[in-house]
Amino acid sequence: MKYTISVLLLLMVSAVLTAQVKTCYDIQYTTDPSGNSPYMNQTVTVQGIVTGVRYYTGSTASNFGFYISDPEGGPWRGLLVYTNQHSPQLGDMVLLTGNVAEYYNLTELTSVSSYQVLSQGNPIPEPQLINSGDLSFPATGEQWESVLVKVQNVTVTTAPNNYGEFKINDGSGNCQVDNQFFDIGHSWGNTVALNQVWAEMRGIVDFSFSEYGLNPRNTNDMIREYTLANAAVWFQSITAGYEQINTIALKTSRLRASYNIESYSTKIRFNPNQVKFEGVDISSTLTLSDAVQVTLSPTEDWVQITYLAYASGDYDGPVTSDVEGADLIKLKFRPVEYGSSSISFDEFYYNDVLIQSANSGSIITPIRKKMAYLNISNPNNTKNIFNPALNEKITIKYGYEMKSTGINARATLRIYDVQGRLVNTLVNKNISSANGIESYIWNGRDTSMNLLPIGVYYCHLEVVERDSGNREKTVQPIVIGSKLK
Rounded distance, CA 445 to CA 304, Å? Predict the structure, then answer.
């Protein structure tokens, strides 16, 4: 009997240790004709980027939820989180634990028991281009449930009804458009009318009353006609190797000949403590000549890129593209720190027109070897010295190799004084982020919340690999200083 109980306990512990952080794809993908999730009625932990907030699920303003997506976007890679207990921002990377439910065949994460924002300001996946007819039938529509999509060159085929719903068609079939992201009682008014033609509509797909619907998140998701002013540029996020030169593509929406684009200029910002700029690559891009000026700032935290189609003496003609998401130019970076580094626009101009839709991207550098990773810095000076008496804080990044099996290691982060006495345990948890790296912001206090005196302290990281028991340790000093006189 004791042996049986021991075996059962071991099996239970093993199940806990091998628990995985799910993706939206894991939860959504199904071959079941009903569309039901394979994890229906199960408790799961899932990670994703917030793509839509304040989606109203009922008749009152207190009934709402938000949508998350896998970073790459695409079919099966979105999920509705039904809760009014949390208010994330677009671009938040969140880690959630909840129950998978099918609400009239719409897959939801409900009864959220754990909620954590891992990082903010992450790139939102670009809307996936689909046909309106893809949402007409379950066979083609189910894969787009909760996914950010867009349709182009559509005609309004039914006027908005009393529920704010109307139909559009690009020639492949009708699909419904709804206003679930707008305030209760919202009316389209004169904005939408029968037989109007819209250049593009974007939104997140839901399923209600046996019909898929496209839900614009705001009026910016609805483009009446294409003009140069509503063109879009964005960076495509990549995963890159540590100390290896990689290219990240600056992509563009379709560029029509009528725009007559003869130049573009942009100022791009990044963290030089995380990535080093190594130049540009124009091969297989819309930048056809060597008429590109590249200026790196003295602080190496931004680069100015200017292209003039006629600068080389041989006029290349206007920049055009019939392809959505063509590479305008590629930038080369070398990661010098593990983790995620944002590549963002300060500004972007086609000719002299400021492009409002310019979305940042990320270079993600995961840990690919068995090591306890520790990186400590003060946001104000990038060094491991700070003054808590002035309300300064210090950022401690820690991590370990992240395997495809999900949660793999447990981290313990402790602070010791110079006598070797433990003054605080900051972290004692599983590493669950997608790249194996997490961060803790320390305020310089001990376990009793008392400010620690000026001096040298040691940050000690121990990581235990859960499936093998392998231990890795590392230590770095932290200096609590005083204000200079």
Answer: 42
Sheet (strand 373-377) strand order: 373-377, 394-399, 437-442
Give dist(CA 372, CA 257) in Å, integer: 53
Start-to-end Cα distance in the chain: 72
Q: Are strands 78-82 and 106-119 parallel, antiparallel or unpaired?
A: parallel
- Report angle CA 120, 302, 243 to the nearest 5 degrees: 75
The string over 398-416, giving b where at least 16 C-beta atoms fall within 10 Å of a residue's C-beta and e elsewhere, is bbbbbeeebbbbbbbbbbe
Q: Which two tokens stand for residue 449?
A: 């919340």
For 5-43, how does the pLDDT look when each residue is reduced to its tens digit (9 = 90+)?
A: 443 433 333 333 335 789 999 999 999 988 999 999 999
Three-state secondary structure string covering 35-67:
CCCCCCCCEEEEEEEEEEEEEECCCCCCCEEEE
**407-447: pLDDT as tens digits:** 578 999 999 999 999 999 999 998 877 678 888 999 999 99
- Residue 114 is given by DSSP the state E
Q: Cα separation of 339 and 426, whole Å?
A: 20
Beta bridge partners of 281: 330
HSE toward the beta carbon, residue 159, CA cutoff 13 A: 5
pLDDT category of residue 298 using cuts at 50, 70 and 90: very high
Q: Which residues pair with 439 in a beta bridge?
A: 397
Question: Which distant-in-sequence residues (6+ apart) come within 8 Å of 348 by Cβ?
Answer: 233, 264, 265, 266, 354, 355, 358
Sign of the Cα pseudo-torsion (427, 373, 301, 309, in order): negative
pTM, full prediction: 0.67
Which one, of 135, 312, 269, lies nearest residue 211 by Cα? 135
H/E segment holding residue 5: helix 2-17
Domains identified in the chain and CATH numbers = 20-119 (2.40.50.140), 128-225 (2.40.50.140), 233-365 (2.60.40.680), 373-480 (2.60.40.4070)
Tokens 């939104």 label which residue? 203
Q: What is the sign, positive or negative, of the torsion defined by CA atoms of 247, 250, 251, 254?
A: negative
In one letter, which amino acid is 113?
S
How is residue 60 written in tokens? 């009152």
Structure tokens belonging to residue 93: 């990377």
- One-letter amino acid for residue 148 of the chain: L
Tell me the backbone φ, ψ of residue 132, rounded to 5 degrees: -60, -35
Q: Which residue has the tokens 């790296």?
A: 437
CA 75, 78, 82 angle in degrees (round to 5)?
150
